[in-house]
Amino acid sequence: VTTPYEEIDTPALIIDLDAVHANIAEMAAMAAGNGVRLRPHIKTHKMPELARLQLRAGATGITCAKLGEAEVMADAGCDDILLAFPLWGRPKLDRLRALRERARVRVSLDSVEVAEQVGTVGRRTPVEVLVEVDTGLGRLGRPPGAPSAELVREIARVPGVEVMGLLTHAGHSYKTTSEAQLRQVAEREVTDLVETAELCGGLAEISVGSTPTARHAATVPGVTEIRPGTYIFNDAAMLRLGLATERTVAARILATVIARPAPDRFVVDAGSKALTSDGVGVRDWIVVVGRPELHMAFLSEEHGVGRSTPGQGPAIGERLELIPSHACPVVNLFDLAYGVRGGSVDSELLVAARGKVR
Amino acid sequence: VTTPYEEIDTPALIIDLDAVHANIAEMAAMAAGNGVRLRPHIKTHKMPELARLQLRAGATGITCAKLGEAEVMADAGCDDILLAFPLWGRPKLDRLRALRERARVRVSLDSVEVAEQVGTVGRRTPVEVLVEVDTGLGRLGRPPGAPSAELVREIARVPGVEVMGLLTHAGHSYKTTSEAQLRQVAEREVTDLVETAELCGGLAEISVGSTPTARHAATVPGVTEIRPGTYIFNDAAMLRLGLATERTVAARILATVIARPAPDRFVVDAGSKALTSDGVGVRDWIVVVGRPELHMAFLSEEHGVGRSTPGQGPAIGERLELIPSHACPVVNLFDLAYGVRGGSVDSELLVAARGKVR
Asked: Taking the complete model, does pTM exceed 0.90, yes or no?
């Protein structure tokens, strides 16, 4: 028994399944056309059903950030998982050991210290690792070239691990302001890794790619794997980058106007507890679907405050669909989403990997 | 069976129960000393155990933002609840009706339209309502004085509701930069409401107060009720306002350093999925407990990137306690918290009202 769209209580997370299927097919065809493997990051959806759709469409495995996400996805039948986060400490190593008994697991890391911990799990069969390289984000990894090549050599000497290749995340691509700049970031993330791998005498895996860079990076010689996540849903950041249209944005927050306290102001029942504070201060950080004349001004936890031309805004009781600034953390705020098709509810989707902080 | 502090896996939400008890006692004594009722907002903790502590210390009831929170708290025995959010639509009105059968419930609102909906539930016994007034935040409510007095008169004519008083939330107090300015905001939130109530011929309830304004507002003649929330845990925003010290901050995120990719950079396993993006861009928006020399630079979803003097930062594997910018949405990201006392785990606290978006 599902709920008719008109009866969905708000705020609610709505997933347009037609857009999801189209987004999955497009990225899978792009990867196949360029001969690169696609390993989507499931942090965007956190839903086993959608991971299965991605695998059925040709993804060769999935990427997870946390063991808790990987365990949920293994329960759902995913048997090839990249854990793209350095693991530390006995509880996580025990869980890694258990996870390896039911899935092929790779781990990314950027230090000898973490490699030595992970290696304790690989005494019989070495743990496959990807060494993370910093291609400009300034988060994990050493710079490409000699510093990373030296790290690869050090890690290769650690018992219990086997270096399979290099990995990077060009998260700074989200801040590019032109197609040319975006292409440059994407090309650099691949060539930085390819050149570093050459210094190491060649490595099997060159794993790159965010949603912004994936379509460019897939065309650069040497790349073997792309790991986009957001493409399945898209969000306001993808709209700003020109990588999505309102039609291809699959994740929306359905909200109700609960106040019109001033002629130019309306308030909806979705605040940062439904939309997060990601992107605050950015132009058009939240988009009201089909209503370009409405602009969100600020969010409290439970209130979304919007502005309109005086007297022109929506009435109390009207329902609006909001495109969040950043889809991934928004999905993490909901236990359940409504999958819609052609304007009616098709299914309820459990956000099974929500809240897996560890 | 509880987990020793040293064995808590990270990232984890840690609640210092000694600080919680002291914070609860201090606010309760302050309210009692000024002869005002204390109705804490439970959105900060979302934990039935802590609501019971607040009530036992003298709170006369609780404030909730959502019906889902109120239902959880009613299950836990809270029988006097202010729902400080305008309700709209059949599912919520049905739940309000059911909730009224097991608790005294008041609702705040700022329009005739919402009052008419709420009134449908009050045919036999009118629903007690507080009319929200805008004392400067620019969110809900009309301006104080004549505009709000006129609204009160219109709402008073709606069948099924009984106007008990006025309510405001001076959320702009979080942006004050001096004690004098904060006191001014607090005094204004009370006097604005008192003057508006006089235009209405007097009203029983004058309900104000955020954590920043509560201690000042409680001293202003005419106030009857204060509704602070954050005071139970405090956070980096309260540190900046001078209303808390590291010792009185009860909610922390325990994190592990998982990388040292550069001499001046460390990365912990707590990003915006544990700390939210609230407060990004604000000076000292996240504080590392006992380590003033460490500064957080930016958060990804799973990574917290910090800076130190080159070569002076924490080692891989070291554990840090981080004070979040804003406690309330952080608590909403965890299913479970660890209650600690004197450095060891005392209990596991269920965040039972987490994720109650509706």
From this structure: yes
